[in-house]
Amino acid sequence: MNFTDNKIKRTESAKLFEEAKQYFPGGVNSPVRAFKSVSGPPLFIKKGAGCRITDEDDNTFIDFCCSWGPLILGHNHPSIKKLVMETAENGLSFGTPNRMGNLLGKLITENNRYIDKIRFVSSGTEAVMSAIRLARGVTQKSKVIKFEGCYHGHVDSLLVKAGSGLATFGVSTSAGIPESFARETIVLPLNDRKLLDETLQKHADDIACIIVEPIPANNGLLIQDRSFLEYLRIKCHDYGVLLIFDEVISGFRVGFEGAAGYYDIQPDIITYGKIIGGGMPVGAYGASNEIMAHIAPDGPVYQAGTLSANPVAMAAGYAALQEVLQPGFYEEMAQKTADFTKHIQAYCDQKGYELSIPHIGSIFWLAFTKNRILRADQIDPADMEKFKVLHHELLQRGVYLGPSGYEVGFVSAAHTPEDLTEAAEKIKEALDVVF
Ligand SMILES: *Cc1c(COP(=O)(O)O)cnc(C)c1O
To answer: Probe ligand 1: pick from 71, 72, 125, max atoms within 8 Å of CB?
Structure first.
């Protein structure tokens, strides 16, 4: 490995990680945090402010992970903190309806043309799981089509990949998932209309829904052509299949109305998470009045949650979403991100480095190829060795990326053009080590 020497101290993080291993499997509470695909022990972060985080060894980094997406306003945003503290003064949870839930529900539904009603849950996984149940309840069918390279949380029937041969039923990617569950899922490659047609022709009578990340951002950033998403919309309509947009990342990220608004495509059900909670555990799913009428207590599809829509979580989401509704918010985020990626791209082109930076809104991904990547299988796993070097070199220089080359980066409102120029300079230096 051609790393430069470790300049930053990771003594405290290393010590805490050793301790954490006694309590948690692999020392973590979510697997990718363990730094398995990059070097050294994971950093234990003790605080964040704006676009920067500080670890237990007092190293500070410009952060592009941003808690994996929720922190569109950056760390410790004053208006979120204020409303959360004020709300917490009165208690954390009652398990009853509360005014703060109404405020957030109203803010979202009044500013989103693609859903009439919403139901709050406590994570993206829970949102997706509930949306799938809703689709099955509405259509009275059972199978689900998903796409290779899209992640939908750790829902049993969605932790699957394509079996051998094309358009076969899925095989699980995790132990503990009965084969019978995996068989309820059909996995297709993205951007393949022919295979989609064949699958729908053969199985439409059993297919409840197609679920897609309209902006696939969990396995690299596989930005699709609008026409493919439009094709899904038309085919779902033709075959009586519901279309679910999993907008846990793209929702409130590429615009207040997420990818549905960005592409102006009306899905049947939309799932949200991450940004919607302003940094607290919140997920949600929404749809038309007609579809949402199937949810209990109005309808027969059961779904519940002890801490769902608790006032403190609602307050964090409400404070965050008020900010993103300010005029020009998304335009500015997209412009900053485009300038940032252009700066790095120009350097790579001049140096002849094999790198491109797909980006949309304030999401970007460092791809170690010049080719446009539309499908998961077009990513060369060998590129991850390059990412490992890049990640290490960036930590040395005070820039924090999510600890895997398959992860996208997020620019927040707190990243100023100066911060982004500083980060770009450091990324250029690190790329000089990689190439
Ligand atoms: C993060 C994510 C999920 C899962 O959300 P959790 O809150 O981690 O359960 C689901 N779908 C997509 C598209 C995501 O990015």
So the answer is: 125
Lining residues, ligand 1, CB within 6 Å = 123-125, 128, 151-153, 213, 218, 246, 248-249, 273, 283
Interior/surface letters 188-221, b for 16+ CB within 10 angstroms, e for the rest: bbbbbeeebeebbeebbeebbbbbbbbbbbbbbb
Q: Catalytic residue numbers?
A: 151, 246, 274
Please report, for residues 26, 42, 48, 54, the alpha-carbon distance to residue 13 in angstroms, rounded to integers and kept in the order given.
14, 7, 16, 11
Give tens-digit pLDDT for 38-87.
989 999 999 999 999 999 999 999 999 999 999 999 999 999 999 999 99
Q: Which pLDDT score is estimated for 20?
A: 98
CATH class, domain 78-324, is alpha beta
**What does the pLDDT look like over 228-260, one tens digit per residue?**
999 999 999 999 999 999 999 999 999 999 999
Could you tell me whether strands 117-121 and 60-63 are parallel, antiparallel, or unpaired per DSSP bridges?
A: unpaired
User: CATH fold of 11-76+328-434, please?
Assistant: Aspartate Aminotransferase, domain 1 (3.90.1150)
Could you tell me the distance, in angstroms and rounded to a whole number, from the CA of residue 383 to the centre of ligand 1? 24
Q: Where does the chain hold its CATH 3.90.1150.10 domain(s)? A: 11-76+328-434
Q: Please say whether the beta carbons of 136 and 122 come within 8 A.
A: no
**Range(s) within the chain of domains with CATH label 3.40.640.10:** 78-324
Which is it for strands 242-246 and 269-272: parallel, antiparallel or unpaired?
Answer: parallel
Question: Has residue 168 got a pLDDT over 80?
Answer: no
